[in-house]
Amino acid sequence: MRTSTAGRVGQYAALVGYLVFLAFPFLWLVSTAFKSPRELGSPHPTWIPRHPTLDNFRQAFDEQPLLRAAGNSLLAALAAAVIAVLIATPLAYVMARQRTRLAKAATGWVVVSQAFPLVLVIIPLFLVLKELRLINSLAGLVMVYVVWALPFALWMLVGYVRAVPGELEEAAAVDGAGRLRTLVSVTAPLLAPGIVATALFAFITAWNEFFFALVLLKTPEKQTLPVVLTHFIGAEGVADLGPLAAAAFLATLPSLIIFAIIQRRITGGMLAGAVKS
Fold it and tell me: What is the separation, in whole angstroms, between the first and last Cα of the chain?
């Protein structure tokens, strides 16, 4: 009994420690965003600002075009998420239902492709986009984001499709439904939590992405929010800490808000009530 209690205490302690580890950067970011320059330069930093101020937010908007950059990021992230889901859903259905060697090889390639570093693919991507005249365009950036998000989106959706009982599709086939009708009318509604989770992953990945946007976008009018955040760092590597923290805090809000809105759908039962036992 004592061993069991000690084990539970250890598990809860590890969980609390992990949560603190995850929350520390965000809490420190929020604290820094509301501190005055005098507090930021203090040799004895505090968690809670002694004199909270919004000057960092005003300065951040005055120094950089954050709204325009946020609009570019939002457009690119939404387009990439929607396109990736539209492509990945039927492909995942085929890979999950066709248990052939080709399907297994494709699944393995999807997993292996996630190990490729960004630097390895940036030169071929740049050359391809140059030939297509899509350098320095949001359309080209969206294309890159879709290609980069597809492998993991496929891997996620294949697992969700395999969790759908085959009996439901067999019943639809008996009623005369074809593969496409079965996918649209039977399987896709049951995949809604998985599709939402996959779209959220693709959106957050594109929203936070920095390397591709830095290389492919040249004009300031088309730069995304992560790239604009680097403008708060001077030529000598000295960061304008207050406005940078304020802008970075604002950049994290969309992901947090979207996740808070749809997290119930993600954690909800995917097949609740679909099959009677």
Answer: 37
Q: Which of the four pLDDT bands, split at 50, 70 and 90, describes residue 277?
A: very low
Burial of residue 255 (number of CB atoms within 10 Å: 0-12, 13-18, 19+): middle
What token pair was written down for 143? 């294309």
AA letter at 190: L
* Dihedral, 207, 208, 214, 218 alpha carbons, nearest 10: 30
The pTM is what? 0.80
Please, what sign has the CA dihedral across residues 57, 59, 62, 64?
Answer: negative
CA 155 to chain centre: 15
Q: With contact defined as beta carbons under 8 Å apart, do 185 and 67 qualify?
A: no
Structure tokens at 139: 């359309």
Six-digit token string for 16: 């609390």
For 277, which DSSP code? -
Q: Do 170 and 117 touch, CB atoms closer than 8 A?
A: no
